[in-house]
Amino acid sequence: MMDLVRREGITVVYVTHDQAEAMAVTDRIAVMREGMIAQFDTPERIYEAPADAFVASFIGGFSLLSGQIAAGQFRPEATETDLQTDSAIRGRGVLVIRPEDARGAGAHPETQLTGRVASAAYQGRCWRLGVDVGPARIRLDWPERVEPGAALAFSLPPDRCVVLAA
User: Fold this and answer.
1) Extents of the domains making up the chain
2) Which stretches in the chain have pLDDT values below 70?
3) CA distance 119 to 127
4) What is the reported pLDDT for 17?
5) 148 CB-near residues (< 8 Å, 6+ apart)
6) pLDDT of the residue at 25
7) Can you give the pTM of this predicted structure?
């Protein structure tokens, strides 16, 4: 369908609730919330820079870690860890974690977190881990198996640490 649309140069409004489909078949996406446009942008831009926590949770694939933001630091709930952020937001916020962004603990010490592995599922190119960080369970793609119950220290590239208002 998209080949035909592009070849003919026509404009099409395509409505779907399937986020993966929307990302794959469009050059622009309007994410709607309560009858209003929450974000209108390219699929790449929506994935890389969601406008708010609603858009991030709607697009899916992300983990959202709640916490507090103050003085350029984000502290996830029920942890003693402060992560550097360039977010100008203050107060309650959420850290958007993309599973593919997880790195070893030493890669980015300024954005290091620790959690406990709850699950591990082989995905072919990586292991998809469910990791409990404070009260939240986040999803990480990891290069090797980690046994459930084990502690895991990991980091996130600072330029990929998107913090949004809660």
Assistant:
1) 1-60
2) none
3) 10
4) 80
5) 117, 118, 119, 120
6) 82
7) 0.85
